[in-house]
Every structure is written in structure tokens, then in C-alpha cells.
Amino acid sequence: MSNAEIFDRAARRLRRDRAQPRFAEHDFLRAAMLDGIADRLASVTRSFEHVLDLGTYDGSFVPPAGAAVTRSDAGALFAAAAGGIHADEDQPCFADGTFDLVVSAGVLDSVNDLPGALALVRRALRPDGLFLAAFTGAGSLATLRAVLRDAEGDRPAARLHPQIDVRSAGDLLVRAGFALPVADVETLTVRYAGLGRLLGDLRGMGVSNVLRDRRPLRRDILTRAAQAFADRADPDGRTAERFDIVYLTGWAPAPSQPQPARRGSATASLAAALAPPDNRTT
Questions:
Q1: What string of DSSP letters covers 143-177?
Q2: What is the pTM of this model?
Q3: Angle between the N-to-C axes of helices 114-124 and 166-175, in degrees from 0 to 180, rounded to the nearest 10
Q4: Residue 223: partners with Cβ closer than 8 Å, 6 or more residues away
Q5: CA–CA separation, 180 vs 20, rounded Å?
Q6: Strands of the 85-86 sheet, one edge to the other
Q7: d(Cα 220, Cα 203) in Å, to the nearest integer?
Q8: Rg of the chain's alpha carbons, rounded to an integer?
Q9: Residues paired with residue 242 on neighbouring β-strands, in sequence order
Q10: CA 183 to each of CA 10, 85, 170, 188, 203: distance values in angstroms, whole numbers, following the listed order
Q11: pLDDT tens-digit map of 232-242
Q12: What is the dihedral of CA 189, 203, 2, 243, to 10 degrees?
């Protein structure tokens, strides 16, 4: 294990194993991600034969009709229940050019080497293969972050994972060698009756704190945070929490794909195109 890793791999696997038996009670966020991925996949006209479900959880991703699916998860229990492979997303596991579609929902935000994981996905894709992913990004859990900061005072501990914004996510696709990269974001708001319900959902999803330098949350801090959470409630007694879902779309490069125009090949002047009508020349 590298000293540069910020996530505890063993703790991450353990959190997923603990979440597996009752994951269906807390799967709303991944279900929303899979809906978004399905919408994006529906706009693709080509067919797929070999699909990788990277971070399969309960195996609820439904592959395109007629496609064979390989499932993989960092949690041993999720992998076993789905008949899949037990492996971390940023460690080599699949031969180059194995799949023509890779889908990942809800796991890439806690991978130690995300650039490496994306590079492995790109290599595992055949030319013109498609990658679709979703994960929680920057802006998520803003209320939880604020109440924990208020509860801990001047020297708050690291309680929540670093988050990736949509622009950085797009840059990572480019860095990994994907063609036609697209990154976009959608916001999901969930209203909770109390802080305990939110923390229960995070544990139930297997996404609670797995930072290597995490510290236990003292009871007095938790009590103050719960009160601060309640103080932010709407008149009906529920407090809103935000989940920003970042979606990634990228293609493995292929000669048949559209190519950007050669630099300097334009035949029209931008200045001329933007000039007032009376000043334009032909």
C-alpha cells in the first residue's frame, strides 16, 4: 500500500461487506445513478456484446439485451452475491480490449488512484468501446459537512471524503485517453427527519468514512451536530441534504470516430462572423 493513498482499502472493503445484507433498504442513490446511466445509454444506437459492471453492489445494473456481463466489486460479499470478481477498481484485473461497454455507478469517488482506474477502464475497452460512470461529486453532503464543522469548532477533523467537481472529472477522462469525453452533473435532494437517518443511509450504502487518517466521532460532537442538523429543518421537521451526481461518458479511441479539425484549417474568420451585419464582408 502506498503512503500516498488517502483511503483505507481494508476499511472500504469491510464497509461494503457490512452494507451488503441490507443494501436494498438504502439503494436510492445508486438507483438514481443507474437511471441516469440508462438514459445516456438509450441514446446510443450501437449494440454491445461484452459488458463490465465495475462496482456492481447488488448486481442491479441490467445490461443491454443480448450482452454478456462481468461483474466486479471491492466488497467480497457483493462480488460473491452477484457471481462476480472481487477486486479494487484501480488494480489491474482485466486484459486489454476485453469489453465494448464498461459501466460504473457509485464507487469511483472513493478509489485511491482514480486516474489509474480510468486508465485501466480505457485499456479494458475495445476500440470504440463506451464508458459510462456516475459518482457523488463536489457539492454533495453540504449540510452534513456544515453541521460537523460547526460541532467540532476551530479544529475540525476530516470526516468526509474529498470530492471531485465536474470540470476535474472531465479533465481526468482526457488524461486517461478517452475520446469524445463528456462530464455533467445532476443534483438529488433528500429530506431527512434527523441526522441519524442520514448517517444510517451512508452506512447502509457502504460509503461512510474510510479515510486512512479518520478519527472516531465523539458522542458530544455527534450530539451537537444532530442539534445543528435539526436547527436547519424546514417547518415540517425535515432537513434537506444534497447529492451531486457526476456523470462521465467517454469512448475508447478508434479511427472511425469524429476527429477535431486540424489547427489552422478554418476558412472563415471568427472576427468576421461576429461583426455587425453592415461591416461583414463576403
A1: HHHHHHHHHHTTS----S-----HHHHHHHHHHTT
A2: 0.89
A3: 50
A4: none
A5: 35
A6: 85-86, 68-73, 50-54, 99-105, 125-136, 239-251, 179-192
A7: 20
A8: 22
A9: 189
A10: 30, 28, 5, 17, 27
A11: 999 999 999 99
A12: 0
State the chain's maximal CA–CA distance in angstroms. 75
| Residue 33: pLDDT band with limits 50, 70, 90 | very high
Q: What is the spatial distance between Cα 31 and Cα 205, in angstroms, rounded to a whole number? A: 11
Grid coordinates standing for 146? 456544515
Burial 210-220 (b: 16+ CB within 10 A, else e): bbeebeebeee
- Rounded-to-integer distance, Cα 141 and Cα 136, Å: 9
In angstroms, the CA 81 to CA 207 distance is: 19
Contact 20, 78 (CB under 8 A): yes
User: How many angstroms separate the CA atoms of 135 and 29, rounded?
Assistant: 9
Q: Which of 210, 211, 197 is nearest to 143 (CA)?
A: 197
- Residue 142 has φ and ψ, to the nearest 5°, of -65, -40
Render pLDDT for 170-209 as a digit per residue (tens, 0 to 9): 999 999 999 999 999 999 999 999 999 999 999 999 999 9
Amino acid identity at 114? L
